[in-house]
């Protein structure tokens, strides 16, 4: 009797294992990972909800001479970074890694975007940014290279994107040189910070973008079912 029970258990495992494996492979890491929220947080006035750090409103000019604001990034998942066109050290490597992001998520048709801020607005004019974007084969519909007021650019880096802990005044002698990529979700919360010169770190970024897309897809499907 005991032997027969054992055989039945083994048979049941063999029959169900492919289905279990399929579910694991199909749902992937989205079933097990929820990306953290980075930055300070506080409790809302109702005493229950959590208010997470969020990227502040902004207004810059991109490589096509168009005004780009936080409104253009509402409902988008995006990667933010800081660079300058004459950089010969970390920036070329960062551009190469961001091209991987572009290639991987072009299929999202604008859901995933890239926002590169110059740290040298005095030299990185609109025509210079345009030439740089063309040189590296950036998709203008997916990737904005922006310039503007230096203080606002630097305040965004320090206070919104948290890429530089050292304080500065955005003046002539102030300079930010960061290798970090920042993953921002649809609600403008920071969900990850990565070394943009490290292939493995960028691989993590690519995976985490997939996780975010899956999170939103699951939420949208649940909302659709609740509305039916």
Descriptors:
alpha+beta, Glutaredoxin, 2 domains, two-stranded antiparallel ribbon, 9 strands, globular
Describe how the helices and strands are arranged:
Blueprint: H1 2-27, E1 41-43, E2 50-52, E3 59-62, E4 67-69, E5 77-83, H2 91-105, E6 112-118, H3 126-135, E7 143-147, H4 150-160, E8 180-184, E9 190-195, H5 199-227
Parallel strand pairs: 5-6, 6-7
Antiparallel strand pairs: 1-2, 3-4, 3-7, 5-8, 8-9
* CATH architecture field of the largest domain: 3-Layer(aba) Sandwich
Rg measurement, Å: 22 Å
Report the biggest beta sheet as strand number plus sense, adding barrel if it closes. Answer: 7 strands, mixed
Q: How are the strands of the biggest sheet laid out side by side? A: 4-3-7-6-5-8-9
CATH fold description of the largest domain: Glutaredoxin
SSE succession: HEEEEEHEHEHEEH
SS field, number of helical segments? 5
Give a count of the beta strands, DSSP E runs of length 2 or more. 9
Low-confidence stretches: 5-32
Structural notes for this entry:
With 228 residues, the chain is an alpha+beta fold. It has 2 domains: 30 residues; 187 residues, 3-Layer(aba) Sandwich (Glutaredoxin). Helix content is 40%, strand content 19%. Strands 4-3-7-6-5-8-9 form a 7-stranded mixed beta sheet, with helices on both faces. Helix 2 links the parallel strand 5 and strand 6. About 12% of the residues have low confidence.
């Amino acid at each position: 009797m005991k032997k027969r029970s054992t055989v039945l258990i083994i048979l049941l495992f063999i029959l169900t294992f492919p289905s279990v494996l399929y579910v694991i492979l199909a749902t992937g890491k989205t079933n097990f990972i929820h990306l953290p929220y980075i930055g300070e947080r506080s409790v809302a006035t109702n005493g229950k909800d959590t208010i997470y750090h969020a990227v502040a409103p902004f207004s810059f000019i991109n490589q096509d001479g168009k005004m780009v604001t936080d409104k253009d990034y509402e409902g988008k998942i995006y990667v933010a970074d800081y660079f300058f066109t004459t950089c010969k050290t970390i920036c070329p490597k960062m551009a190469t890694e961001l091209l991987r992001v572009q290639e991987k998520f072009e299929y999202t048709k604008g859901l995933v975007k890239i926002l590169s801020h110059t740290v040298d607005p005095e030299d990185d004019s609109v025509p210079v940014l345009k030439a740089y974007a063309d040189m590296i084969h950036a998709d203008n519909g997916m990737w904005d290279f922006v310039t503007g007021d230096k203080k606002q650019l630097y305040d965004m880096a320090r206070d919104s994107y948290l890429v530089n802990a050292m304080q500065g005044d955005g003046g002539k002698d102030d300079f930010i040189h960061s290798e970090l990529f920042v993953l921002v979700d649809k609600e403008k919360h920071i969900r990850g910070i990565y070394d943009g010169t490290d292939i493995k770190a960028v691989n993590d970024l690519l995976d985490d973008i997939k996780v975010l897309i899956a999170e939103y897809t699951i939420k949208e499907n649940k909302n659709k079912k609740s509305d039916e």
